[in-house]
Here is the input.
Amino acid sequence: MDSYQTLAERVLGGAPASASAAHAILSSPDEELLDLVAAASRLRREHFGNRVKVNYLVNLKSGLCPEDCGYCSQRLGSDTDILKYSWLPKDEAKRQAEFGLAGGASRVCLVASGRGPSNRDVERVSGMVEEIKSSTPDVEVCACLGFLKDGQAQRLKDAGVDAYNHNLNTAESLYPEICSTHTFADRVDTVDKARGAGLSPCSGLIVGMGETNEQIIEAIEALRAVDSDSIPVNFLIPFDGTPLEGTWTLTPQHCLRILCAVRFLCPDRELRIAGGRELHLRSLQPMSLHVANSLFLGDYLTSEGQAAEEDLDMIVDGGFEIVGAESAERLRDELKSHRAAHQAAFAEAAPSEAKSGGAPAGAAMTMSTLPCGKPLPTAGHEAGDSGVTIPTIRRRGAGTELTPNA
Here is the structure.
């Protein structure tokens, strides 16, 4: 293959990268990684400049899903001790969304577990969207509710939903090994329904599930075929209690190569570093923003992410700006100041509450056990001497009384 810079020039000239070029990227040696990232960065900057789009997840309904996706902590039969709750009230959904907006998010992603929404559920979410947009009309709203029935995408569009997320997740050739309760074609059908109703299709993949490089390319080409506008790349979070628990096949370098492959095959599409980035990209997260142009702020659906301040530090220190914000640095500094004042207020309240026998409002933030009685692990702790990082289950934000990480 020609040099990465030559390949970038061809792509910039309108010639799409081939599957063979993507295979060369995915199999490239570590010593070429900086050259590869530099070339992919040219494509990123051509289409998105130095801007990073910040997205924020609100988990409207958690757990108890009837599907058996092997990677998911909310799957049928999962023994993972995640938060489980039914639909958030409309005002609480709006409140949770506002935390993300204050942290710089220009898109709020409203997610609910389950195979797919009933028409009543679609009306419920439509009401939430209308409430959010009544106070923040410029915010983008992406819904992720599972498989759509005829007419549901149009109702969401009419309510003000801008995008619909439904990930293809992996290659069609691998799909039967990952899930038995629905097919790859079912997923493609829902992406088609969303696009047909005028919703921006948001569809991505999960890597680290045992797929080959060829299957990664197959999945990316499928995303290109469904014309996904926004491509979240998730890195497997191998929750205990799921079929893929203990699966650790990725290196930070290979995660970057995967992002570069997506960028070369889909140069003008929003590319988002999503769930599991902290566990797998690790110290290479800042470098990944020279390839990707989007991220999720703070926590994910059922697991904790790194502190929101660290996300904003990464953006500011990389010389990037945030979509919709006048100054990324000012936003970051205001968030840090707010957090410091918030923590100081709790610290001042604690002594007086202790004397009266009550617990301060922030006491739950220092709990040492989970609701089931198991010890609460520290964020990103290692299991014994194995060197394997264990994901931390989300215990704050939506579905709890605690302030979210935003």
In short: Confidence is low (pLDDT under 50) at residues 354-386. The longest helix spans residues 328-356.
